[in-house]
Design a protein that fits this description.
The relative contact order is 0.08. Strand 17 and strand 18 form a beta hairpin. The strands form 4 sheets. A 7-stranded antiparallel β-sheet has the order 8-7-6-12-11-10-9, with helices on both faces. It is an alpha+beta fold. The radius of gyration is 29 Å and the shape is globular. Helix 1 runs antiparallel to helix 2, helix 5 crosses helix 7 and helix 11 runs antiparallel to helix 12. It is built from 14 helices and 21 strands.
């Protein structure tokens, strides 16, 4: 048996000094339907209903090939028979593998640890102390829900070989609910026995409001998702040696588009894309956020539940919460909306943190700020509790220069053919007349967004152009500073401060602040952390 430890493990006798909890009594919990005997609580197994679940990807091609063979004109197609035989063997192999997986995977919560055993020929055993469990997320996709199943992902401190997670895929919904409850409740009891803060009662912080759906079209996912879907379809057809432009429906649309004046075709196309994109955005919003509920559970756990077709449940340990981030994309900001993300540890990589750490969907900004304050236990959101210091005007010049570096090459590329075709010079002039003011306006907006300050125990920083991001980071959560200066920043007397933290994206920046002011701010925010590395004249 080859162990796969995730932090400290226990395989021998229990340590009385830990105040270990006794196992649950037989028959008192859905997760423990049978007696545990002298060796502790009963082992639980995956549901056999997960076997047909994992066979679903073989059934469709198998049924199609069988229909081709049996529904022909009486002649047997050798290639179809070979394909059918191959798929039948694959079906049997996949069924055997998944059946063996269900029969050989077992788990239990024994006193102060979670134990998971897997495998028949290649056996593995993993033991995780409950005090190292950070969260337990439950996910149920549509087919899982149809079969009454769910998947449980347990976040573990320390990482280990599995990247800080332990997954049980194919348990029943009752097993998933009981496992999550047992893990978090027993962990809270262990921490309380060691002198941790007292538990709090379950309280709902915010629930989904149907009126929020109006913010769905103000995100980029509608139109962006439409073009992404069209790209996937085009690539698929291209790989099948099919020219999409030669399809009847597409050819009809192209002919219609070319037969009407441009001043009619272009606005109609824009409106059609906007309408389809809006419908797609609303659909994605409803699917992702229906049933949304953010609540504070016993043991200091924030739980986010959401999803229409795919049910998702994410747990965030409040003890690892280091702050919040308010995100305001341009269109959403114009509509008075925002999103809220948690700056927390134990949620995986920075990319995973952006999805699993979402506390509020696109919703009214006032509601986002209220939830931010309640999550942090403050009277007012730290992102709004202080007037942020403005950055030097030199930071504005840097943003205007960067905008010009993007616009001027575009104008030059449009004007280049004007050497041979004078009409391109006119097009270049129109392009410059549109893009240059837009670049300056965006630079002004980005400069006005810049700011930094201290709101009690939080460091607050704001930046962004197309999306304003305001982060409130707990000062005690800053574990290091990085001071960086590009050649252009050195010439302008500016620098960028990067606060490192073991949570969220890992690094949060204060951009283009004056040298003296930035260093003084870092020292004031976390006294003694940066001072030893400064060279005094």
């Amino acid at each position: 048996m080859s162990p796969e430890p995730a932090g400290p493990t226990g395989t021998g006798t229990d340590d009385p000094a830990r105040g270990a909890l006794p196992g649950p009594r037989a028959g008192t919990d859905p997760a423990h339907p049978t007696g545990g005997g002298a060796d502790g609580p009963a082992w639980q197994r995956l549901s056999l209903r997960s076997v047909p679940l994992h066979l679903s990807w073989v059934l469709a091609p198998l049924a199609t090939t069988a229909g081709t063979v049996l529904g022909g004109d009486g002649t047997l197609n050798l290639q179809a028979l070979i394909t059918l035989a191959t798929l039948t063997v694959a079906f049997g192999v996949v069924a055997a593998i998944n059946l063996m997986r269900c029969l050989t995977t077992r788990y239990r919560i024994d006193r102060d640890r979670l134990e998971v055993h897997k495998g028949l020929l290649f056996r593995s055993s993993r033991t995780v102390l409950l005090e190292r469990v950070r969260n337990a997320d439950v996910t149920a996709k549509p087919l899982y829900r149809l079969l009454g199943l769910a998947s449980v992902a347990v976040g573990v401190a320390g990482g280990g070989s599995s990247g800080g997670s332990l997954s049980l895929d194919g348990v029943t919904r009752d097993q998933a609910t009981a496992l999550r409850r047992d893990l978090l409740n027993r962990r809270a009891a262990l921490l309380a026995a060691e002198g941790a803060p007292a538990e709090t009662e379950d309280t709902a912080i915010v629930r989904f409001d149907r009126a929020w759906v109006r913010y769905a079209p103000l995100t980029v996912w509608g139109v962006g998702g439409l073009f992404a879907a069209l790209g996937v379809v085009y690539r698929t057809l291209h790989e099948m040696q099919i020219d999409p432009l030669e399809l009847g429906a597409v050819r009809g649309l192209v002919d219609t588009f070319t037969s009407v004046p441009v001043w009619v075709a272009v606005p109609v196309t824009v409106l059609a894309v906007a309408a389809v994109g809006t419908a797609g955005a609303v659909g994605l919003y409803v699917e992702g956020w229906s049933g949304f509920r953010l609540e504070r559970e016993e043991g200091g756990i924030l739980r986010v539940r959401r999803g229409l077709w795919i049910h998702r449940s994410v747990s965030i340990e409040e003890g690892r919460l280091r702050g919040v981030e308010v995100v305001e994309p341009m269109l959403l900001r114009w509509g008075g909306g925002a999103r809220l993300h948690a700056v927390a540890g134990g949620l995986g990589t920075a990319e995973e943190n952006r999805t699993r750490g979402t506390l509020m969907p696109p919703s009214p900004r006032a509601e986002v700020l209220r939830v931010a304050a309640e999550v942090l236990g403050a009277d007012r959101s730290p992102t709004e509790a202080v007037e942020l210091a403005r950055h030097p005007r030199r930071a504005l010049r840097r943003r205007i220069n960067r905008g010009l570096l993007v616009v001027l090459p575009v104008v030059a590329l449009v004007a280049l053919p004007g050497i041979w075709v004078p009409g391109f010079l006119v097009a270049a002039g129109i392009t410059a007349a549109v893009l240059l003011p837009a670049a300056v306006l965006l630079a002004l907006d980005a400069y006005r967004t810049l700011g930094h300050g201290l709101a009690g125990s939080y460091l607050v920083s704001r930046a962004g152009t197309f999306a304003h991001r305001t982060v409130a980071l707990r000062r005690e959560g800053v574990i290091g500073w990085t001071v960086s200066r590009s050649p252009f920043q050195r010439r302008a007397g500016l620098l960028t401060l990067s606060a490192a933290t073991a949570a969220g994206a890992g690094v949060y920046r204060v951009r283009d602040v004056a040298e003296g002011e930035g260093l003084a701010f870092a020292e004031q925010a976390v006294p003694g952390l940066l001072a030893p590395f400064l060279v005094r004249d």
